[in-house]
Amino acid sequence: MLACSQPVLKRLWYPVMPMNMLADGPQPFRLLGEEIVLWRTESGAPAAIRDRCCHRTAKLSRGFCDRGRLVCGYHGWEYDAAGKVVRVPQIVADGKDTPTRMAVDSFRTAERYGYVWVALAEPLYGLPEFEEAGAEGFRQIDQFYEVWNCAGLRLMENSFDNAHFSFVHRATFGDQGHPQPAKLDIEQFDDGFLMTSSVPVVNPDAQKTLLRIDSDHTVRHMKARWYMPFLRKLQITYPNGLIHSIVTAATPIDDGSIQVVQFCFRNDTEEEAPAAGVIAFDREVTAEDKFILESTDYDVPLDQVGTEFNMPSDRPGVLMRRMTLDLLTRHGEAESRRDGAVKGTGERPVLAVAR
Ligand code: FES
Ligand SMILES: [Fe+2]
Question: Is the pTM of the predicted complex or chain greater than 0.85?
């Protein structure tokens, strides 16, 4: 699937940037191939419009903010949050607004969990609700904001793949002696699914202090929720009651790259586990995923007939692909592929090994 060629993906919310990045003025972002500019309006709410001035095409992100408006850096035309040109300083010089019908496209924005979320078209679902946010005893730690050169679906299916720990994460928590993936259960919803699984893992020294678990091995009780198409929350509960709940978004920049936005919620304190240590361990783990995922083909086949082979632990990833394909089909779209081949709904692949 080529994400930028599937219009229905514009109808979903994506976290694009930490709110505090807007303190320095307008910021550019490419979302599903669309160049947008984000800024903070007078009320403090974020705004997003197309990043191209309708006068002489300058990027509006090279301008500045004034009284909550976005001012083009070339000739100073001023835009409001609806994308309308509300002042042309060359025509009305006394500081008053200029009546105009000129405008650029504007996009829906929301501020949630400290991030700006954008939907390029009428959203199909609401913003995800995370029970840990603001809950008694929980804190939020902002972890990473970085670009990966892979498809969003590759990172999503990796997050639900119990078979990769022993290999990709052999240097951190993966148990090389036990490559058999843990069993899993899936509950399906309209906008995604919930996978539950208990995974025995190695407990390296770096984690012993952060988890307050002394043993060399422990168990991760995982509740992983997939929100179509590129967002997941992985809630890990350890045997001592510690909850480490990681939100990872693979916000699609274009077909082959994603903005990884990751933050976590924990029910412990800074004194018990310093945020810097929590980030450092999760950084090491995600760097292991990134190294492999950036080597995968970004054109993930949703319709898998004759493409990739599967094993039983790929069930969440296969379901993800099937649900994404169903979403496209419901909205009258066929799957776009790089070779120009357009795939419809085909037979589902038969798993290579019986469960
Ligand atoms: S190019 Fe933006 S005001 Fe002229
Ligand atoms: Fe991983």
Answer: yes
